[in-house]
Amino acid sequence: MVQPSESDDTRRAFLRQGGLILGAAALLSPAAFLGCAGKPAGAAISAPEDLMEEHGVLRRLLLIYDEMARRLQCCKELAPESLTQAATLMHGFIQEHHEKLEEEHVFPIFEKSGQHLALVKILRGQHEAGRRITTYLLHQAGSSESRNFVRRAQLEAYLHLFTRMYRAHAAQEDTVLFPALRSVLSPAEYLALGRTFADREQARFGAHGYEPLLVPVAELEKSLGLNDLEEFTPKL
Ligand SMILES: [Fe+2]
Ligand SMILES: [Fe+2]
After folding, report:
1. Does the structural domain 45-224 have CATH classification 3.30.70.920?
2. Which of 69, 104, 154, 185 is least surrounded by Cβ atoms within 10 Å, i.e. has the fewest?
3. 30 CA distance to ligand 1 middle (Å)
4. Distance of CA 59 to CAs 96, 142, 146, 221, 233, Å?
């Protein structure tokens, strides 16, 4: 029989304390607890859950980038406006919202505690590299040279560099950095961080959070033939 480890005990203690705080918070009004009048109390999510949900949007945008790169490589038609729209969504939601949360509220926690310092340094550097690629994409997608053969090859290469880096980046955040927040924050700090994220999301996007942003993402998917999930199932 497997004996519970010390970390299991720590985790259980953490959850117990968190449960007490959640129980006390349930006595408050939903809006007071969440800092977000548009969501019921049951919809409260932790900071890592919030960030991982946002990674879901990132992954949908990466699939869009994949398809755009494929079309550029195969000399297939790709409307420059589609690339501009996808890069604008990547910039506005991922780089100006999601990454700002990480840079202002998550990375400093590890930098102060001295944990995962090497990883955080790389992640910060990748945010900067991602912004440079987005600036390039936004500049080139709208230029009259975007149909030029060499320019198409460059755009395809930059899209590929971006998707490769961000898949590795988000995987490390999801499996290493975000889970480690439990060990560096107290239960109260952990819950407060989730509340801060909900407030930031509401302040930036309104009462419904980022949900309305999924509409243009879905439209882009449809325009590129990515809207049918069943199409991704291999016919074996
Ligand atoms: Fe990040
Ligand atoms: Fe992230």
Report:
1. no
2. 104
3. 30
4. 16, 24, 25, 12, 17
